[in-house]
Amino acid sequence: MKKVTIGDVAKEAGVSISTVSQFMNKRYEYMSAETRTKIQEAVGRLNYRPNMLARSLKNKGTKTVGIIVANIMHTFTTQIIHHLEQYLQKQGFHVIVCNANDDPEIEREHIENLLARQVEGFILFPTGENIALYTRLYEERIPVVFMDRMVEHHEIPAVLLDNEQASAVAVEALHRKGYTQLAIVTDSIDRPTTPRLERLTGFEKKMTELALPCDEHQLIAASLVDIPDRLQQLFAQTPIDAIVAGNDRVLLTVLNSLPHPVGIAVIDDIPLAQFMSPAITTIAQPTEQMAQKAVEVFLHIKECGYKNVLKHVYRFSPVLQQK
User: Fold this and answer.
1) What are the HTH lacI-type domain coordinates in residue numbering (predicted)?
2) Is the pLDDT of residue 54 over 70?
3) 177 and 276: one domain?
């Protein structure tokens, strides 16, 4: 089948090629509603799809942003992708979403592949282990914003939760309910990531501040596979009456591993938490505001470069939700 061209659309609509080009680039200033309708109908009848790469080379930009997430299985990740896409679309950008599955090699492959597709920049949930590649992006002035995680000693700006505060809010909420023997459970820190480390630190600080017992065995950082055994050991040692789960996936593992009901708080917004028993305290991340800030910073870098970014870390306060 012959490929439909912009000339075919112009002929079908009875207008010039330049007019169709203006329409495709959303330059409607001097175009009547009737002409726009004719072109739109011609595009539909011919099933015309513009060559985005050719247009991007001509216009010096693909209007495409790569979003590379660390693990797409988290509720937080899917929520923030939704908001990032909305805010980027409002600015005329398309997005390509990739999942690194917490694997630095997969992350590197995604970045290289998206660069080959000439994306204009990245919003990246970094694994933290591709330092040379992050540096290359920075030095080549490719706009990048880190989301959810920081990379130490790097100039790329980051947007993330105040994780220590989130743990403190969780501990305070459980303590107000009368719980005093608390533990925190989070993912393994074999690959140390910002949220996991900071949530452990925040838990320990708040427990100390409230003069509650806090030994090392009450801070569990383990893989999802190992968490059940670690919980069994914990309950054998200490009469734990409440647990702070570091995220939604950890929460599900904890709930399936408890020897008896305890108080629960989770640092994540769990849509079904209101239907769970016992009642669960959720500490949500303000995903829409975080996404809006990430897009704002991305656009600023694209326009003005990294040197003019006002801050390198943008922290957002957690939101306590009683379910």
Assistant:
1) 4-59
2) no
3) yes
